[in-house]
Amino acid sequence: MRSEDLWMLTQQEAAVVPPFVAFAIRQNPGVWDYVKVDAGSLSVDIIMSTDYLKFKEIIFDEKWAKDENAMEIDFGAFDVRVPILALPSSIGSGLGYISKFMTSMLGGKTESAKPLVDYLLSLDRNGEKLMINETLNTVETLQEALMVAEVFISALPKDTPYQNFEQKLKEWGFEKGWGDNAERVGQTMRILSEMLQAPDPINTEAFFSRLPVIYDIVIFSVHGYFGQADVLGLPDTGGQVVYILDQVKALEEELLLRIKQQGLNVKPKILVVTRLIPDAKGNKCNQEMEPIVNTKHSHILRVPFNTEKEFLDHGSPVSTSTLTWRDFLRQDATAKILELMGGKPDLIIGNYTDGNLVASLVASKLGVTLGTIAHALEKTKYEDSDVKWRDLDSKYHFSCQFTADLIAMNAADFIITSTYQEIAGRLQRVVSGINVFDPKFNIASPGADQSVYFPFSDKQKRFTKFQPALEELLYSKEDTEEHIQKETNLFSMARFDIVKNITGLTEWRIFDPSKSQDREEMAEIKKMHALIDKYQLKGHIRWIAAQTDRYRNGELYRFIADTKGAFVQPALYEAFGLTVIEAMNCGLPTFATNQGGPAEIIVDGISGFHIDPNNGDESSNKIADSLRNARGIVDIGIECL
């Protein structure tokens, strides 16, 4: 490839301010350069990110760009704690990198492992020592004790309970936490012995995964209606609620398994902290405490805000972007957490912008390890939202949201992401936001609950009790409060907001806006009605009201699959795409946006199809051609949820 061709591929953006043209060039994910070209002399100068941002700002707000007091944000000073990943292909693989880095630190002289010994000595649970006691305070004494203990344990039957030889190990300096039986204890000791003799990344990661350090977890998921039933589709409430509830169940199962294998008699606690909403509209979001279904030790804690300003008309919660986090903290959520947990939690996790910021503040206050769950910044969803932030700020408060995201990410000890998506947005004058090569980033993609979203061909597991209602919902000839228009072949499920692009899908090919409490949703509903009239689509679209029962939704996917239908996700940008996973799990042929997470979920033409939300003609033709080739369909309609 010629160098000029490569330059064209890596040139991401240009800002034209005569006589100059400034270019943003991304050589690789996370690697940016900026240049300025003089259109008259064709001279090229390398410029800093600050200068490039000023070029962009001049186009939209010259006064702001030239204001000497304009705020600049630079988190570059945070980027000095640990070695940084070097290869773009390694972004999101922080755990593996840290294991290799720690292995390199353990290698060499014996005293190199002293920090590991000190760390093991620090482990306890409510004052009770775990793993080792002060008898084993040097690397040499630990190694010697391990050799003696391994010989002793190897002579025991594998299923010998730990309690049967606990006292003997204690005499040698070992405490609880190594395992629940002779086999598990022997394995853990062998892994540590090998680490101390000849460390390698696999043993390092395996050993630390066995340590008894996590029992109590607090998750902050503050925005929207956080509930277990009758909330999906309400303002600011969607896949993030399903995601957290699924993760809580998986976390509790994993904690119970690990604690058992560690040989401890401890009950874990997981607390999801969110807002209490007085007008809960028939759901349980006005209850302070609620057990999480299908768990034994997990609850939702709802904390009220202390002013009426946090509620719009009709008592609905404000949008994600306008939250007042300080008011949330003034209700002393921290004190309630300490009361319910019986002390500090072992880990605090934040979800979404507001949850991440609250989590970072509480974790700092308590001195607790912080993890955040990264979501796409709104820059990826709204075109030019970085330079047009003033125009959008009154509605979305991006200046607050973007800055909060950057604060939380830089404060976090680790960050969980769903896909390999780089955050390259700029707001105000963000000179350096977050280094995507930081090993704190780890990709851990969520899945769909297999007990709810399973293939339509699995007849024995089907939720047949929903089928009569779904038959009426999808195929009744009469319009009702739950559906309008006729049966169709295509199916899509999403909230009515601009980014989800349901009206875009309609243009390619809640019914009453006055009943909506969300301004953006109201506008999209009106646009939908206008498009139906414009393109004479009555009788070709079946418009279904929001469905809040996830079990029924699972059967809805399968019901569509029974009729050889297909699922379309046309979002302008989708950070992950939980509905894509759900539809594919249920066996629906899936067409999904190529902007964001679905580009990684789907292998185009093999496991599904990518569509370009910015090219309606191409996308509609791709959908129609694929369906015609599959089953000879001529009349194609759209089903919207």
Automatic annotation (TrEMBL):
Ranges where the Sucrose synthase N-terminal domain occurs: 10-57
Stretches assigned to the Sucrose synthase first GT-B domain: 204-475
GO terms assigned for molecular function: sucrose synthase activity
Domain (Glycosyl transferase family) ranges: 526-629
Keyword Nucleotidyltransferase belongs to the record: no
Transmembrane segments annotated in the record for this chain: none
GO BP annotations listed: sucrose metabolic process
Keyword Ribonucleoprotein: no
Keywords: Glycosyltransferase, Transferase
Stretches assigned to the Sucrose synthase EPBD domain: 94-180
Enzyme Commission designation: 2.4.1.13
Alphabetized InterPro entries for the sequence: Glyco_trans_1, Sucrose_synth_GT-B1, Sucrose_synthase_pln/cyn, SUS_EPBD, SUS_N
Catalytic activity: an NDP-alpha-D-glucose + D-fructose = a ribonucleoside 5'-diphosphate + sucrose + H(+)
SUPFAM superfamilies registered for this protein in UniProt: UDP-Glycosyltransferase/glycogen phosphorylase (SSF53756)
Coiled coil: none
Function, in words: Sucrose-cleaving enzyme that provides UDP-glucose and fructose for various metabolic pathways.
Family: Belongs to the glycosyltransferase 1 family. Plant sucrose synthase subfamily.
Name recorded for this polypeptide: Sucrose synthase
Organism: Sesamum angustifolium
Organism phylogeny: Eukaryota, Viridiplantae, Streptophyta, Embryophyta, Tracheophyta
